[in-house]
Amino acid sequence: MHKKGLAVVALACAAATCLPLSASRAATAPLSSPCPPTSSAWPSLEVGSQAGALRRDITLIAPHGSFDRNTRELALAIGKRMSANVVWAVDPKATFVRRINVNRPTEMRWGMDRKTSTARAVFGLFSDCVARFPSRISVEIHGDSSKDVMEMATVGVGAELAAAMKVTWADRFGLPLAVDAAGDKLTMTAGANKRTGLLSQCSAACLHMEVPSHLRDPEVLDATADQLAEFLIAIAP
Asked: Does the CA dihedral 50-52-56-61 come out positive or negative?
């Protein structure tokens, strides 16, 4: 347990710099109905969801569960520890040559974003699924090849909270936390997501986390989930 970070967040919350409470946190909130498991527009895509039993005010999202290796498993593991909502998508046929972005209405072809009717249909299905879980904080889990930083693009997060989040992060995994709302420069800015994707629809606080590859290896996945769940609980008590 990072006691220094938790103590700082406790003070930050007292100063109204942590994520605000909302009625959606109530454990008595109705459970969401399951999301449609597939899309006729892209049959190889599988969509899944589960409602949290206690923390229905937090939703973990893994839109690239196949291409971003083990992000679905990581989101599910964090959701289990927090008893939070989880929404994911996997596509066994996703490759660098062509894949649907899912969290925005475009597809990737040879590394280039392209708007297509197929991508819009898939995004519509997935965003409707996410909308079934109204949350005060949503966390997209993505994968990055970097080994020296944890990056976080944000929407609805002010500079004061971002600074408190960095202190709370402390020395987890021996990596610094870079947050755009704190003025940090990011390699993965989530710019397309903010313009046309899930982040463009954010009405509360939304985080877009780039988890380094080595923290998603199967043998350390549980330890990574432990630390990320602890961090999220600290910033959204």
From this structure: negative
Query: Each residue of 95-128: pLDDT tens digit?
Result: 778 889 999 999 988 878 899 999 999 999 999 9
- Tokens standing for residue 220: 């350390």
Candidates 156, 172, 148; CA nearest to 208 is 156
d(CA 6, CA 24): 23
Q: What is the per-residue burial (b if ≥16 Cβ within 10 Å, else e) of 162-192?
A: bbbbbbbbeebbebebbbbbbebebebebeb
Q: Structural domains in the chain?
A: 3-17+28-235 (3.40.630.100)
d(CA 73, CA 115): 28
Binning pLDDT at 50, 70 and 90, where does residue 38 land? confident
- Whether the per-residue pLDDT at 13 is higher than 80: the answer is no
> What is the spatial order of strands in the sheet that 98-100 belongs to?
98-100, 106-109, 112-115
- pLDDT for the residue 10: 39
